[in-house]
């Protein structure tokens, strides 16, 4: 199979291109959205939002990870030849997550509500209580739309996924411009609700035509569920450990530094994260391709992996230096002045995310191949490092130390997974016998 044929078969170039466009639009939303929040309620309002959002996302501990499994499983088959198989797996994943996240969202509301004042302080408690139910409902819709977008990516239509994400982001930005000046953080929450609702509906229309589903999905297959669960239990250890880094780091910064430090950390984190995601999006978009090539063409897989590593490492090096040099510009746009604490946070996080991106192709390779042992080990170590270093240094030196601990942990994780998982592309590391067949419907 030639490289051109591979890229065409899996829509890799389109997937990567549209993933990049998605990140550019998200950057515009970040600046305009947070600028309006700061203008309406100050940088502390950003801190309140980040704190509530972080604690809401901790409820993902109950997520069994079927959405991630669906993306990989669907990528193994051709929807034209195996349409019924694809439909059953896709609908089973969707119905599982509708029930799962409905329960988790309800638990999140009742678990967080009584402790809001402790989390954000007495001065911000009333506003936080008004925002919480909207934020929790948005959390539910976010995960349902995320499941549908994951199914779309598993169908090798990642470019459609990014198109819908861009559409949703534009809609969110318009609602932010309309509502945030009037009702503050509630306007930001409503913007997310509208965004994820529209994306979910449009995404389902595309998917059901591709898979041949009815308008209302009704197919839940226990065999398919068990097959996905076997993979997702391992994958979810990775997803949860890596996904908990963001909310735990914010909880640490907020606890040791207060809402102002939390707001500055949120701004700095998003300043670095969006460009980092722009670089990593090309690697992530190649997940279905790597999953298929791992079982079909190991030589082509090595070439795709090598290209992904060279591009991501080079681009992130340039990006990190640029972020540190030009950090005063977003500080001026958001805060009206150059804030040295924000600049310090950007520098620390840029260094950490550079190390993190070095491991992005190897991380994706582990997920795509189903060889998750190294991914699990490294992500658990990252979480442990964050907790130990963040608590021990934050209690002495405050919020900046917690940011430094976050940077070190995520950088360590990227370098470690790169050194461990790059061996998966070696010719001697053949796929396990029968790994594809065992997933058959």
Structure description:
With 441 residues, the chain is mainly α. The chain has 17 helices and no strands. It has one domain (7-439). It is 83% helix and 0% strand. 52% of the residues are buried. The model is unreliable at 1-10 and 432-441 (pLDDT under 50).
Tell the overall outline: globular
Please, how many domains?
1
* Fraction of residues in H or I helices: over 70%
**Number of β-strand runs:** 0
Number of separate helices: 17
Q: Order of helices and strands, N to C? A: HHHHHHHHHHHHHHHHH
Unreliable spans are: 1-10, 432-441
Which radius of gyration do the C-alpha atoms yield?
A: 21 Å
Q: Report the structural category.
A: mainly alpha
Which percent band covers the strand fraction?
under 5%
Short overview:
Helix content is 83%, strand content 0%. The chain has helices at 3-9, 12-41, 43-57, 66-75, 83-112, 116-120, 125-154, 158-183, 185-211, 222-285, 287-296, 298-326, 328-335, 340-358, 360-369, 373-397, 399-421.
